[in-house]
Amino acid sequence: MTSPVCRSCWTPLTETFCDLGLSPMANSYVAPEDLDRPEVFYPLHAYICTECLLVQLGEFETPEAIFSDYAYFSSYSTSWLEHARTYVEHVTRRFDIDSSTRVVEIASNDGYLLQYFARNGVPVLGIEPAANVAEVARDHGIETRVEFFGTKLAEKLVDEGRFADHLIGNNVLAHVPDLNDFVAGMKLLIAADGRITMEFPHLLRLIGETQFDTIYHEHFSYFSLHSVTRVFARHGLRLFDVEQVPTHGGSLRIYACHEDANRYAPSQRLEAVARSESDFGLDRPAGYRDFAPAVERVKRDLLSFLISARDRGERVIAYGAPAKGNTLLNYCGVGPELIECTVDRSPHKQGRHLPGTRLPIKAPEYIRQAKPDHVLILPWNLRDEIVRDLEYIGEWDAQFVIPIPDLETFSPGSGDQ
């Protein structure tokens, strides 16, 4: 069998970062009428490139098959909307964004972020490949192109005179199989004095807190500051700042510009984050080798808890139907015999079933009706928001369960969260 090659530098990938076995596409939720049909399971095997240190998966499905009709709508998370609003306030002040600034967002979803610029009279353009999601943005007055981004679309926009003064990409860089074409497209699209901001889960946090459930087929790559700097530099883009933000279990927000743009001086934060990665060992392949044993421990701990709860006759219901939850449950081999169902705020997921495990997805109100003994929070990165919303489970002495980085149980109002 031919070894896969690095999507950044084309080096053959020979070293395993984490092998999570076989799993279905994490966002391929199953409709009731399809429960008798087979699902396709793909290897969920992450490699570390020994040359550029980019962690990545092989490609098993095209972006068109994954993202053209998508079940994730950003606006159903109040904390994510707040994150978007504060981001817009922050960059508007920092870069004097006004009605003369052309703002473009790649993977703009349902307009969750661009709406805040538009309210201030800033001209915006969203680029979103999922037609069903883009339609929601358009309904809210956000101009949105239904296309995948890369050099082809960038050239088309440039020919139309639509350069970007401020180009945004939140949690999209990981979803790109042709990484070089994507970054080259951004280089083409930003104006001479333009800038890029991108957010993505920080690989240091993923490893340090055993966030293996962030690994799924829709995420082709997993970035450190070290690896993303090399990718951008290859295409004539220079990082001039970085911020550590709490979203998705700990993310980086990078700022980039043309390599010869004098307007943007490098921040000292770049050196600080790079040093923290080096201290952790992310500047050498050996720093990645302790991750797989830690993942196996999380699996053992969760299964032990769920089996013991079932043996005691206690009921467990999950909260959320995120892609990360599907990685966790499929890797651990958990199904309805251990967890009755899950609930989710999105009506686009309710009534369907989780891929692989086939857990039914109900509305959140079901928890109050069912009164389980335990609520397993699958989107643990939103734990504070969820714990506040479900504080009422304390009425019948139920407990919350957090599976990652270490199994944790606590009661509402206990102060542990």
Structure description:
Residues 6-67 form the Methyltransferase putative zinc binding domain. One of its GO terms (molecular function) is methyltransferase activity. Residues 246-405 form the C-methyltransferase domain. Keywords: Methyltransferase, Transferase. The protein has 417 residues and is an alpha/beta fold. It has 2 domains: 65-280, 3-Layer(aba) Sandwich (Rossmann fold); 291-410, NAD(P)-binding Rossmann-like Domain (Rossmann fold), CATH 3.40.50. 31% of the residues lie in helices and 21% in strands. The protein has 13 helices and 17 strands. It has helices at residues 63-67, 78-95, 114-118, 131-139, 151-159, 179-189, 203-208, 225-234, 268-280, 291-311, 323-332, 366-370, 383-389, and strands at 15-23, 42-48, 55-57, 103-106, 124-127, 144-145, 164-170, 190-201, 221-222, 237-245, 251-258, 316-319, 342-343, 361-362, 374-377, 399-402, 408-410. The strands form 3 sheets. It has a 7-stranded mixed β-sheet with strand order 6-5-4-7-8-11-10. Helix 4 (131-139) links the parallel strand 5 (124-127) and strand 6 (144-145). The radius of gyration is 21 Å and the shape is globular. The mean pLDDT is 93.
